[in-house]
Amino acid sequence: MEKIFITGGTGMLGIYVQSTLSDTPYEVITAERTRFDLSDPKMIYAYITEIKPAFILHFAAETDVDLCERDPARAGVCNHLATEQIAKAAQACGAWLLYISSSNVFGSEGKISYNELDIPHPTNYYGRSKLNGEEAVRSHCPEKHLILRAGWMIGGGPRKDHKFVGKIIRQIQEGAKELKAVNDRLGSITYAGQLSDFIIWAIDNRQTGTFHFASNGTISRFDIARAIGDIMKFHGEIIPVQSSIFPLSAPRPVSEGIKSLYLPILTESLNPGYWKDDLAKYVATFQGQ
Fold this sequence. Notes:
Helices cover 40% and strands 19% of the residues. By secondary structure, the chain is α/β, with parallel strands linked by helices.
């Protein structure tokens, strides 16, 4: 039985993937916190090479963009150096390595949407650290890696979603009369449930390369809030606001929207759909909670 080693197995995406893998013939091993710590990359190589997995799914990361800006050393260690050790271990084991990257590797170029042929140029330390992680993966696993750049990740459902979509849904459920959402920053959504299905397909097919995985459409969080309001028949007011009213440590690009040139060629059935349709599928998981 082939072993799959997962970092970040308790995170949003990790939970979806583990659930899907429960019906497959793979042996799934998740990283033990006592032996796997992104902030201490030295322990990672020995731990993975002891397990000798056939596949490594690297989901763990320091994803707090503002913390990365305040503490760039943490961003560099957790997102770059730890990933480099994982990539070196994958190379030593002959393992196939999946690395989840981010649309945040783009933004400084001033475009509205970025595809796989666009050259990354991040605006903040988080994006730079994720891009450095990509480069480490390509360097040490040149023939057996898959890099997936995700957009604004949505998922988790009623119990786990504490991000923007979950907050908007709860405000509506709790009877809010007014909602506020930023309309001057753009991106794309990635539904973790859909990404999980694609990852299982990629494992089975040993897919390699770099791909963008996000629903079609470059949108603002105001657009998302308005769409959720339509789905949930919200009769209050949704107010667009400028990002400047929420002071943050890290600069955000005007747009980090992404689209894929290659996914439609790979597998038509596993492509993300139009963003409103994918958002509606996710919001439906909150029904009857």
